Amino acid sequence: MDWEQMREALWPSAPGEHASEIADWFAGRLAGVDTVLIARNASGEALGFIELAIRTVAESCYSGRIGYVEGWYVESYWRRRGVGLALLRAAEDWARAQGCSEMASDAALDNRVSQRAHEAAGFAEVGRSVCYRKALDEAIR
Q1: What is the CATH architecture of 3-140?
Q2: What is the pTM of this model?
């Protein structure tokens, strides 16, 4: 499965947007994703990916230069086999090379699988939130 298909599996609410976002990333126009790492087996099959960025602010981080996991996905067959952890360790190496001393990430409140994966990889939960939106213009409701 390639990067686009894995993104669609991770973020199914945005079908069709992934191809253009990937094209924008290769063109240097996708804000919020600085690098992408893709895990492949010896045959070249994509097993998972991690999208990373450098942020200046993240919950409970203080350094001002934080490696941030924007997206992290492993194909279901390859989960619990070390692929996700290998991607995260490579992400940590990348963040250190960028001058970061902290990493941060997030997971949906109802995504216990992601929460457990983060905790197993050494992340500590630092907060929970519920986000709200209010349209101020009837045209964009």
Answers
A1: 3-Layer(aba) Sandwich (3.40)
A2: 0.89
Rounded to whole angstroms, how far apart are CA atoms 122 and 20?
33
Q: What is the DSSP letter of 38?
A: E
* Helix segments in 32-80, DSSP class H: none
Give the pair of three-digit tokens for residue 73: 């996905």
Going by their DSSP bridges, the two strands 102-104 and 66-74 should be labelled as parallel
**pLDDT tens per residue across all 141 residues of the chain:** 499 999 999 999 877 789 889 998 999 888 899 999 999 999 999 999 999 999 999 999 999 999 999 999 999 999 999 999 999 999 999 999 999 999 999 999 999 999 999 999 999 999 998 889 888 987 766
